[in-house]
Amino acid sequence: MKWYTRKGDSGRTSIIGGRVRKDDVRVEAYGTIDELNSFVGLAEAALRREDRLGDLADELLLIQQELFDCGSDLAYADKPEVFKMSMEPVERLERQIDALDGEAPPLARFILPGGSEAAALLHVCRTVCRRAERRAATLAAEKPVNDAVPAYLNRLSDWFFVAARAVNARLGVRDTEYARSADVFRRSDPPGSGK
After folding, report:
1. Transmembrane region positions (predicted)?
2. What's the predicted TM-score (pTM) here?
3. From CA 192, how far away is CA 130, in angstroms rounded?
4. CA distance 43 to 125
5. Residues contacting 14, CB < 8 A, separation 6+
6. Which of 51, 68, 105, 123 lies 20 to 30 Å from 146 when distance is taken between CA atoms?
7. Consecutive sets of 10 residues in the chain, 195 residues long: mean pLDDT of each?
8. In CATH, which of 1.10.260.40, 1.20.1200.10, 1.10.720.60, 3.40.309.10 is domain 19-171?
9. 3-state SS string over 102-118?
């Protein structure tokens, strides 16, 4: 198989429906999801090294599949009959967020991304996920998108935050509070939520 075509050398790429600039809003949206998926793979490899984190590593593999589905749906934004994402994965993430949140101590203040290596990687995933969500929102302002994709990205970033805290708790590593943070969270506000 030949891996290069030279067709993109001029700064244009093929998408469903024709050719566009490589910085087109649609390419930027699903490209950022691809970037996120790569970081999720890195996080999965780190979590896999710890027996206590195997269930979360397994979940990351499922998340990678769903991120491919999200990218596909953004590429096919004008063909809802081929959408792959539904609200079911969003609901699954919500159930997991509720369960994982109970593993970490209550949170009152902002925390710094980090702690263990595995948690730090999950925080990287969280921030890239937020950027993917912003790119999907930009696309949605211009073109139709599957509503399940922005909802999934929003919930997924919350999942990464809560999973990072659960990882630190399982490994016996304390989250580091932001030194100048006031008490900002109540138990009714999910930590890391985009509100």
Report:
1. none
2. 0.89
3. 11
4. 8
5. 7
6. 123
7. 67 62 78 97 97 97 97 82 93 98 93 96 98 96 93 98 98 93 72 49
8. 1.20.1200.10
9. CCCCCCCCCECCCCCHH
